[in-house]
Amino acid sequence: MRHILKLLLLGCALCATSACHQTPSNQGNVSASNCQTVQHEVGETQVCDRPQRIVALNPKMLDILLSLDVQPVGYAEVFPIHRGEFDRPSQQIPYLGNRITQPIANLGASSEPSLEAIARLKPDLILGDSGQNKDEYAQLSQIAPTLLFEYVGHDKWQEPLSAIAQVLGRERQAQAVIETHRQQVEATRQAIAPIVKAYPEVLMLASEQLTQSLELVTSADFCGGLLEDVGFQLVSRSNEQPTSIVQSISVEVLPQLDANLIFIQGHDVTSFSQMGSVKNLENNQLQKIQRSWRSNTIAQSLSASQANRVYFIPTYICRAIPSPTGAQLALKQLQAQLVSLSMLVNRSPT
Q1: Is residue 285 assigned to a domain?
Q2: Of 107, 134, 169, the domain-final residue
Q3: SS3 of 53, please?
Q4: What is the DSSP letter of 319?
Q5: 185 contacts 226 by C-beta, under 8 angstroms
Q6: I want to staple 310 with a disulfide (CB 3.0 to 4.6 A). Which of 19, 84, 262, 299 is the partner?
Q7: Closest to 100 measured CA to CA, from 82, 119, 112
Q8: Taking the model in full, what pTM does it have?
Q9: Within this chain, do residues 84 and 215 fall inside the same structural domain, yes or no?
Q10: Residue 39 sits in the same domain as residue 122
Q11: Domain around 98
């Protein structure tokens, strides 16, 4: 019944708009030379002319658009951080809001965006996630050409960046973004080379509370892959190439995975809606796992804990914005957190 009601409401919203999306076969007034076929995770979509009103259904797509100097008209967030209008995006959209300069509609959650709100915006392009938005793909495509790309993972942003840039005629900007990322990775690699030499093995975990959920992060993950990009060796349970970004483990397994350094992706999903402002995001998201780590006997028995070499990063950076800005933030935090260790390594006799 809920699904039927959703379809009826969408139909009403579509009928209320005067510029409803039409399939290429009945767009008689659009020249074929102005159209291009774009391949994406769920198929091929024809996009005509240069889209001007674009909807981003997750932070990754928002970041890609902003990186190309494009302002979207609507946005859906992965977590329920802010309800209501984005009247102060710099305080309501984590890490990316300060780059939004035009009105942008709140379309709800990435996993279940408001189709009616999207239709009211009369977009000419919709960008989303092939995992979360696949079920709505047909309905979204009735509103406007829709491109869905793989979301999480190491280096999963460059392909959609290039595809979207081609649609928007911004290929040069895309190449510049990719080159800037390459330079940032190389600069970080050189800056922390002494640390990597002294402490080559890194364990990366993700958790909210150790006793409730604990994940071993693999090199297929966005941040896990970045750690390997800058020279570290990520500790794993197998020598085989990982097929998923994380593996569920128990805290009792940690002594078998002891490493020189430990990085923990921390999150607290239930407190997102209580945050008030995104300026408090890092403290809000890391407090629970930091307390859990400090109070856990097994965690404190690890050599990295005893040597004060355990570092925390918000899971939001690694999984919500696995894109150019997410990489920049992760690399910046990596260097900042390793400053004291770098000073110690540089003072040590060679």
Answers
A1: yes
A2: 169
A3: coil
A4: I
A5: yes
A6: 262
A7: 82
A8: 0.88
A9: no
A10: yes
A11: 35-169
